[in-house]
Amino acid sequence: MTDEFTAPDVERVNKTINNTFNRNVMVESKENLTKLRAYESKTNFLDCNPVYTELEKTYGKYLYIPFAIPTILPADLEKFVTFFYKHAKHAGKQKEDLSSGKFPANPRSYRTIDSHSPEWTPVWTLNTVADIYTEFSELFEQIHDYMPWVGDKDFRWNMWSSAKDVPAHRDHTSMVDLPSSMRIKLYDTNASETLSLLTDPIRAHNNNFVPLPTLTDTNSFTWNNLRTKHKSFKQEGGDKILFIWREKLITSQQVNQFVDLLDKSIAKYKDTDLIWIDSNPVTDYLNLD
User: How far is Cα 183 from Cα 222, in angstroms, rounded to an integer?
Assistant: First the structure.
Protein backbone atom coordinates (compact mmCIF):
# COMPACT_ATOMS: atom_id res chain seq x y z
CA MET A 1 0.00 0.00 0.00
CA THR A 2 2.87 2.38 0.63
CA ASP A 3 3.87 2.26 -3.02
CA GLU A 4 0.31 3.20 -3.99
CA PHE A 5 0.87 6.59 -2.35
CA THR A 6 4.54 7.18 -3.22
CA ALA A 7 5.31 8.89 -6.51
CA PRO A 8 8.81 7.83 -7.60
CA ASP A 9 9.99 11.36 -8.44
CA VAL A 10 9.23 13.20 -5.19
CA GLU A 11 12.05 15.28 -3.76
CA ARG A 12 13.77 13.77 -0.72
CA VAL A 13 16.42 15.02 1.69
CA ASN A 14 18.59 13.75 4.53
CA LYS A 15 18.02 15.71 7.71
CA THR A 16 18.30 15.53 11.47
CA ILE A 17 14.98 15.19 13.27
CA ASN A 18 14.83 15.14 17.09
CA ASN A 19 18.61 14.61 17.21
CA THR A 20 18.33 11.58 14.91
CA PHE A 21 19.76 11.50 11.40
CA ASN A 22 17.07 10.51 8.89
CA ARG A 23 17.63 9.49 5.27
CA ASN A 24 15.32 10.00 2.29
CA VAL A 25 12.65 12.02 4.07
CA MET A 26 10.12 13.48 1.62
CA VAL A 27 10.11 17.26 1.35
CA GLU A 28 6.81 18.81 2.38
CA SER A 29 6.34 21.07 -0.63
CA LYS A 30 3.42 21.87 -2.91
CA GLU A 31 5.30 20.13 -5.71
CA ASN A 32 5.58 16.94 -3.72
CA LEU A 33 2.02 16.99 -2.38
CA THR A 34 0.80 17.52 -5.94
CA LYS A 35 2.88 14.60 -7.20
CA LEU A 36 1.65 12.34 -4.41
CA ARG A 37 -1.97 13.21 -5.19
CA ALA A 38 -1.45 12.61 -8.92
CA TYR A 39 0.21 9.26 -8.28
CA GLU A 40 -2.59 8.25 -5.93
CA SER A 41 -5.10 8.99 -8.71
CA LYS A 42 -3.99 5.78 -10.42
CA THR A 43 -5.57 3.65 -7.71
CA ASN A 44 -8.51 5.63 -6.34
CA PHE A 45 -11.79 7.10 -7.56
CA LEU A 46 -9.95 9.71 -9.67
CA ASP A 47 -9.33 6.91 -12.18
CA CYS A 48 -5.92 8.16 -13.35
CA ASN A 49 -7.20 11.70 -13.89
CA PRO A 50 -5.62 14.03 -11.30
CA VAL A 51 -7.69 17.07 -12.31
CA TYR A 52 -9.08 18.84 -9.23
CA THR A 53 -12.62 17.54 -8.74
CA GLU A 54 -16.00 19.04 -7.93
CA LEU A 55 -15.98 16.79 -4.88
CA GLU A 56 -12.84 18.49 -3.60
CA LYS A 57 -14.18 21.95 -4.46
CA THR A 58 -17.15 21.20 -2.23
CA TYR A 59 -15.58 19.42 0.72
CA GLY A 60 -11.86 20.23 0.66
CA LYS A 61 -12.34 23.28 2.88
CA TYR A 62 -13.56 21.10 5.77
CA LEU A 63 -10.60 20.51 8.05
CA TYR A 64 -12.38 18.51 10.75
CA ILE A 65 -15.85 16.96 10.95
CA PRO A 66 -17.42 14.74 13.64
CA PHE A 67 -19.48 11.99 12.07
CA ALA A 68 -23.22 12.06 12.72
CA ILE A 69 -23.36 8.41 13.72
CA PRO A 70 -23.79 6.67 17.08
CA THR A 71 -20.84 5.92 19.31
CA ILE A 72 -18.98 2.83 18.12
CA LEU A 73 -17.67 0.58 20.89
CA PRO A 74 -17.09 -3.11 21.57
CA ALA A 75 -19.82 -4.74 23.66
CA ASP A 76 -17.41 -5.34 26.53
CA LEU A 77 -14.97 -2.42 26.63
CA GLU A 78 -12.99 -3.79 29.57
CA LYS A 79 -12.47 -7.09 27.76
CA PHE A 80 -11.41 -5.22 24.62
CA VAL A 81 -8.87 -3.03 26.43
CA THR A 82 -7.38 -6.07 28.17
CA PHE A 83 -7.18 -7.89 24.82
CA PHE A 84 -5.56 -4.93 23.10
CA TYR A 85 -2.80 -4.34 25.60
CA LYS A 86 -2.13 -8.07 25.89
CA HIS A 87 -1.63 -8.49 22.13
CA ALA A 88 -0.46 -5.06 20.94
CA LYS A 89 3.17 -4.64 19.90
CA HIS A 90 5.37 -1.63 19.30
CA ALA A 91 5.65 -0.86 15.58
CA GLY A 92 8.83 -0.23 13.65
CA LYS A 93 9.05 2.11 10.70
CA GLN A 94 9.94 0.28 7.50
CA LYS A 95 9.45 3.08 4.94
CA GLU A 96 10.55 6.70 4.81
CA ASP A 97 7.73 9.22 4.55
CA LEU A 98 7.02 12.93 5.08
CA SER A 99 8.04 12.91 8.74
CA SER A 100 11.09 10.68 9.30
CA GLY A 101 13.25 7.82 8.09
CA LYS A 102 13.20 4.15 9.06
CA PHE A 103 13.74 2.87 12.58
CA PRO A 104 13.16 -0.40 14.46
CA ALA A 105 10.38 -1.03 16.94
CA ASN A 106 11.14 0.53 20.32
CA PRO A 107 9.33 1.54 23.53
CA ARG A 108 8.68 5.02 22.13
CA SER A 109 6.75 3.86 19.07
CA TYR A 110 3.07 3.05 18.77
CA ARG A 111 1.58 -0.07 20.26
CA THR A 112 -0.59 -1.53 17.56
CA ILE A 113 -2.93 -4.24 16.33
CA ASP A 114 -3.56 -4.15 12.60
CA SER A 115 -5.91 -5.62 10.05
CA HIS A 116 -5.28 -8.87 8.29
CA SER A 117 -5.37 -7.45 4.77
CA PRO A 118 -3.79 -8.88 1.62
CA GLU A 119 -0.82 -7.22 -0.12
CA TRP A 120 -0.37 -4.49 2.47
CA THR A 121 3.13 -3.16 3.12
CA PRO A 122 2.60 0.19 4.85
CA VAL A 123 5.05 2.59 6.44
CA TRP A 124 4.82 0.84 9.82
CA THR A 125 5.27 -2.84 10.61
CA LEU A 126 2.06 -4.79 11.08
CA ASN A 127 0.89 -6.83 14.03
CA THR A 128 -2.11 -8.85 12.89
CA VAL A 129 -4.17 -10.68 15.52
CA ALA A 130 -6.80 -12.74 13.75
CA ASP A 131 -8.86 -13.37 16.90
CA ILE A 132 -9.85 -9.73 17.15
CA TYR A 133 -12.32 -10.22 14.28
CA THR A 134 -14.19 -12.97 16.13
CA GLU A 135 -13.73 -11.77 19.70
CA PHE A 136 -15.13 -8.33 18.82
CA SER A 137 -17.18 -8.97 15.70
CA GLU A 138 -19.80 -6.44 16.82
CA LEU A 139 -17.20 -3.68 16.55
CA PHE A 140 -16.61 -4.34 12.87
CA GLU A 141 -20.32 -4.82 12.24
CA GLN A 142 -20.97 -1.32 13.59
CA ILE A 143 -18.22 0.18 11.43
CA HIS A 144 -19.63 -1.42 8.29
CA ASP A 145 -23.20 -0.44 9.21
CA TYR A 146 -22.46 3.21 9.95
CA MET A 147 -19.59 3.73 7.50
CA PRO A 148 -20.14 1.31 4.60
CA TRP A 149 -17.59 3.18 2.47
CA VAL A 150 -14.69 1.75 4.51
CA GLY A 151 -14.42 -1.25 2.19
CA ASP A 152 -14.79 -5.01 2.28
CA LYS A 153 -14.33 -7.18 5.36
CA ASP A 154 -10.56 -7.24 4.85
CA PHE A 155 -10.21 -3.44 4.58
CA ARG A 156 -7.03 -1.94 6.00
CA TRP A 157 -6.99 -0.46 9.48
CA ASN A 158 -4.80 0.13 12.51
CA MET A 159 -5.65 0.26 16.19
CA TRP A 160 -2.93 2.43 17.70
CA SER A 161 -2.04 3.52 21.19
CA SER A 162 0.73 6.10 21.54
CA ALA A 163 3.51 5.19 23.94
CA LYS A 164 5.19 8.62 23.83
CA ASP A 165 4.60 12.04 22.32
CA VAL A 166 3.96 11.94 18.57
CA PRO A 167 5.58 14.82 16.65
CA ALA A 168 3.70 16.95 14.14
CA HIS A 169 3.23 15.30 10.75
CA ARG A 170 1.04 14.63 7.76
CA ASP A 171 0.24 10.95 7.28
CA HIS A 172 1.71 9.26 4.25
CA THR A 173 -1.73 8.45 2.95
CA SER A 174 -4.22 10.35 0.83
CA MET A 175 -3.39 13.81 -0.48
CA VAL A 176 -6.78 14.15 -2.15
CA ASP A 177 -8.32 17.37 -0.84
CA LEU A 178 -10.98 15.77 1.33
CA PRO A 179 -11.57 15.24 5.06
CA SER A 180 -11.05 11.49 4.73
CA SER A 181 -8.64 10.66 7.59
CA MET A 182 -11.15 8.73 9.66
CA ARG A 183 -10.61 7.95 13.35
CA ILE A 184 -12.70 6.26 16.02
CA LYS A 185 -11.75 6.92 19.63
CA LEU A 186 -12.36 3.50 21.14
CA TYR A 187 -10.81 4.19 24.52
CA ASP A 188 -9.45 7.25 26.31
CA THR A 189 -8.54 7.72 29.97
CA ASN A 190 -6.72 11.02 29.50
CA ALA A 191 -7.84 13.99 31.57
CA SER A 192 -7.96 16.18 28.45
CA GLU A 193 -7.63 15.81 24.69
CA THR A 194 -4.11 14.82 23.62
CA LEU A 195 -4.55 15.03 19.85
CA SER A 196 -4.42 18.36 18.02
CA LEU A 197 -4.50 19.72 14.48
CA LEU A 198 -2.61 22.50 12.75
CA THR A 199 -3.92 24.20 9.62
CA ASP A 200 -0.73 24.09 7.58
CA PRO A 201 -0.71 25.84 4.19
CA ILE A 202 2.61 25.45 2.40
CA ARG A 203 3.70 29.03 2.99
CA ALA A 204 4.69 31.19 5.93
CA HIS A 205 1.92 31.38 8.56
CA ASN A 206 1.32 31.83 12.27
CA ASN A 207 -1.27 29.11 12.82
CA ASN A 208 -1.22 27.17 16.07
CA PHE A 209 -2.14 23.61 16.97
CA VAL A 210 -5.68 23.31 18.33
CA PRO A 211 -6.83 20.32 20.44
CA LEU A 212 -9.66 18.32 18.94
CA PRO A 213 -13.03 19.21 20.44
CA THR A 214 -14.81 17.09 23.02
CA LEU A 215 -17.51 14.96 21.42
CA THR A 216 -20.47 13.72 23.43
CA ASP A 217 -22.76 11.93 20.98
CA THR A 218 -20.22 10.23 18.73
CA ASN A 219 -16.62 9.01 18.91
CA SER A 220 -15.94 9.02 15.17
CA PHE A 221 -14.48 11.92 13.22
CA THR A 222 -12.37 12.79 10.22
CA TRP A 223 -9.90 15.44 9.11
CA ASN A 224 -8.20 16.67 5.94
CA ASN A 225 -4.69 15.19 5.82
CA LEU A 226 -3.62 17.41 2.92
CA ARG A 227 -4.38 20.67 4.71
CA THR A 228 -3.41 19.78 8.27
CA LYS A 229 -0.70 18.32 10.42
CA HIS A 230 -1.52 16.44 13.61
CA LYS A 231 0.37 15.61 16.75
CA SER A 232 -0.32 14.16 20.19
CA PHE A 233 1.27 14.09 23.59
CA LYS A 234 1.36 11.37 26.21
CA GLN A 235 -0.29 12.28 29.49
CA GLU A 236 1.00 10.55 32.59
CA GLY A 237 -1.42 7.81 33.62
CA GLY A 238 -3.54 8.15 30.49
CA ASP A 239 -4.09 5.75 27.61
CA LYS A 240 -5.93 6.03 24.32
CA ILE A 241 -6.77 3.54 21.57
CA LEU A 242 -7.67 4.95 18.16
CA PHE A 243 -9.09 3.02 15.24
CA ILE A 244 -7.63 4.40 11.99
CA TRP A 245 -9.01 3.78 8.50
CA ARG A 246 -6.17 3.15 6.02
CA GLU A 247 -8.02 2.55 2.76
CA LYS A 248 -8.92 4.80 -0.17
CA LEU A 249 -12.19 5.74 -1.79
CA ILE A 250 -12.16 3.71 -4.99
CA THR A 251 -15.65 3.09 -6.35
CA SER A 252 -18.43 5.54 -7.11
CA GLN A 253 -20.54 3.73 -4.53
CA GLN A 254 -17.96 4.38 -1.84
CA VAL A 255 -17.74 8.04 -2.81
CA ASN A 256 -21.52 8.42 -2.70
CA GLN A 257 -21.73 6.70 0.69
CA PHE A 258 -18.94 8.89 2.04
CA VAL A 259 -20.56 12.08 0.73
CA ASP A 260 -23.90 11.06 2.23
CA LEU A 261 -22.28 10.85 5.65
CA LEU A 262 -20.39 14.12 5.18
CA ASP A 263 -23.61 15.90 4.23
CA LYS A 264 -25.47 14.39 7.17
CA SER A 265 -22.67 15.37 9.54
CA ILE A 266 -22.32 18.91 8.22
CA ALA A 267 -26.07 19.42 8.52
CA LYS A 268 -26.05 18.21 12.13
CA TYR A 269 -23.04 20.16 13.37
CA LYS A 270 -23.02 23.24 11.10
CA ASP A 271 -24.19 25.63 13.83
CA THR A 272 -21.61 24.41 16.37
CA ASP A 273 -17.88 24.89 16.81
CA LEU A 274 -17.32 21.18 16.11
CA ILE A 275 -16.78 21.68 12.38
CA TRP A 276 -13.57 23.41 11.33
CA ILE A 277 -13.39 25.18 7.97
CA ASP A 278 -10.27 26.40 6.19
CA SER A 279 -10.18 29.92 4.73
CA ASN A 280 -7.05 29.22 2.69
CA PRO A 281 -7.36 28.36 -1.03
CA VAL A 282 -6.38 24.95 -2.28
CA THR A 283 -3.54 26.60 -4.20
CA ASP A 284 -1.79 27.02 -0.83
CA TYR A 285 -1.44 23.22 -0.81
CA LEU A 286 -1.44 21.98 -4.41
CA ASN A 287 -0.27 23.23 -7.78
CA LEU A 288 -3.31 23.17 -10.04
CA ASP A 289 -1.71 24.38 -13.28
Answer: 6
